[in-house]
Design goal:
about 50% helix, about 80 residues, two-stranded parallel sheet, mainly alpha, flat
């Protein structure tokens, strides 16, 4: 998973994906970032939440994408991330 306060198209996640592909790796890469569209301006905390880029949204997205993480006992580690 990559997460950036930047546009997804051509951003850090795209670079990571490109490097992995060039090295011959096939990975289920989840990229979180700002979509390629106009984004409202305002307080950073509120904007990150609206874009699903806050910690709770990131963990929720991870668990939806890789639900097996809960089966391996990682839920406490993920809760620590959400609670800070």
């Amino acid at each position: 998973m990559t997460m950036e306060e930047n546009c997804l198209n051509g951003g850090f996640g795209s670079g990571v994906s490109d490097v992995l592909t060039e090295m011959g790796f096939s990975a289920d890469l989840m990229k979180i970032g700002i979509p390629d569209e106009f984004v409202e301006h305002g307080k950073t905390e509120l904007l990150l939440e609206c874009l699903n880029m806050d910690a709770a949204s990131a963990v929720e997205g991870i668990l939806k994408r890789w639900p097996e993480l809960l089966k391996k006992g990682h839920e406490l580690e993920l809760l620590k991330i959400v609670k800070g």
